[in-house]
Amino acid sequence: MGAPRSDAPGFRTLNGLLPRRALLRGGLLLASAPAALAQVPAEAGQDLPPWMLSPGTGFSVYGQPGPQAQRVLRRPGANRAAPGNGVAWTPLEQLEGFLTPSGLHFERHHNGVPAIDPAVHTLRIDGAVRRPLDWRLADLLRYPQRSHLGFIECGGNSNAGWNEEPIQRPVGSFHGLISTSEWTGVPLRLLLDEAGVDAQATPWVIAEGADAFAMQASLPLAKLRADGLLALWQNGEPIRPEQGYPMRLILPGWEGVTQVKWLRRLTLSAEPVMARNETSKYTELQADGRARQFTWAIGVKSLLTTPSHGQRLDERGTYQLSGLAWSGAGRIRKVEVSADGGRSWAEAALDGPVLPRCTTRFRAAWRWDGQPAVLQSRATDETGAVQPSRAALLAARGRNGYFHYHAIVSWGVDEEGAVRHVYV
Questions:
Q1: Locate the Moybdenum cofactor oxidoreductase dimerisation domain: which residues (predicted)?
Q2: Cα 302 to Cα 381: distance, rounded to the nearest angstrom
Q3: Number of C-beta neighbours around residue 273 at 10 A
Q4: SS3 of the chain
Q5: Is 340 exposed, middle or buried (0-12, 13-18, 19+ CB in 10 A)?
Q6: Is residue 334 exposed (0-12), middle (13-18) or buried (19+ Cβ within 10 Å)?
Q7: N or C: which end of the chain has fewer CB within 10 A?
Q8: Considering only CA atoms, which of 306, 312, 319, 311 is closest in space to residue 6?
């Protein structure tokens, strides 16, 4: 893709990086495009393409991706020892914008996708409440609803970053356990109030899914009351089975394991349940012997999706750097990019809308001179938290890490234009 010329009047480059206003001056994008792209021959009436010479296909009841997108697919990584357990990665490097198509939203299952009959399934709130209550899907559709546009990221996303050597896979195949959707449903506060809870006596809520794993998560009542959502819809349609149909818990900004799919029960409790996924998993031993546990909020993070591992720069010239940034603490304040491994930085342009606890697309223009380079991005959120370098994250968390890896990601570009994952 073309980008502003580095020799354009008024533009000073920083290791090939151009200022944000260069991206806003669209005319320069066209001016620097390869000559072959600009020289589209004038169309003569007798040379119309074949698709203009006969009627097209008819209507369809549900749109499907075109043939050009047939290879844009999730990438499953199933656990061979435990059928139904594993993940399917979102192909981040093949997507644009900040939303994820519902069919490409990443998957994480512990024992397969249940086939739930919505006419039978219920949500129950019980435990330390004044009156236990049950709701069918039809009941819930009568309640006030609201929408939340936000990301869900698995706590184990990017865990290959803890490896001694940089993994060589497409960016979506080790950072692709994050996806962004619009979730619509009933604010949990309404249902908790109806059941009658004592926030002082019962600070915990045990959420349980209706899958064959009976997934459980211990959650603070305060979070559920603050912004918890019982989602019934995803991107305007009923939640897909692999995403939790008919109802899913949504907790904006928190790790995916807390956002229990196929939700069937919320039990008010004085203590956490200490389930498998909050004791033997999703906890980490630190260098000082203590363990990190209940680390729900996602740290500030960003990465370049273009260019990224496996892609190639065909020739010297200007390129668009593009990627995603997000934070569980709120909005992204800024994203900086570097072309020299972090020695110097330039601020990228953010695509709007910049929403709290949602992915934000960023872009920058860079002129590659044919020399080796190391491309990076670094995000800062509205609380002032800055994405750490890999060295800083390792220093803080030690070598036993597996979850919540959010360090700066580095892509090395060699003299041939090949892009690989590197550590700096």
A1: 294-402
A2: 11
A3: 17
A4: CCCCCCCCCCCCCECCEECHHHHHCHHHHHHCCCHHHHCCCCCCHHHCCHHHCCCCCCCCCCCCCCHHHCCCCCEEEECCCCCCCEEEECCHHHCCCCCCCHHHCCEEECCCCCCCCCCCCEEEEEECECCCEEEEHHHHCCCCCEEEEEEEECCCCCHHHHCCCCCCCCCHHHHCCEEEEEEEEEEHHHHHHHHCECCCCCCEEEEEECCCCCCEEEEEHHHHHHHCEEEEEECCEECCHHHCCCCEEECCCEEHHHCCCCEEEEEEECCCCCCHHHCCCCCEECCCCCEECCCCECCCEEEEEECCCCCECCCCEEEEEEEEEECCCCCEEEEEEECECCCCCEECEECCCCCCCCCEEEEEEEEECCCCEEEEEEEEECCCCECCCHHHHHHHHCCCCCCCCCCCCEEEECCCCEEEEECC
A5: middle
A6: middle
A7: N
A8: 319
Count other C-beta atoms under 10 Å from residue 110's C-beta: 20
Please give the C-alpha separations between residue 56 and each of 44, 53, 59, 312, in angstroms, as whole numbers.
Answer: 21, 9, 10, 36
- In this prediction, residue 250 carries a pLDDT of 98
Q: What pLDDT, on a 0 to 100 scale, did the predictor assign at position 351?
A: 97
Residue 287's pLDDT is 78
Q: How confident is the model at residue 26 (pLDDT cuts 50, 70, 90)?
A: low
122 or 291, higher pLDDT: 122
Give the pLDDT band (50/70/90) at residue 1. Answer: very low
- The whole-number average pLDDT for the span 118-128 is 97
Q: How far apart are CA 15 and CA 343, in angstroms?
A: 10
pLDDT of residue 146: 98
Phi and psi at residue 106, to the nearest 5°: -60, 155
Reading the block at residue 377, the tokens are 């991005």
Q: Under a CB-based contact definition with an 8 Å cutoff, are residues 328 and 367 in contact? A: no
Stretch 254-280: mean pLDDT, rounded?
Answer: 93
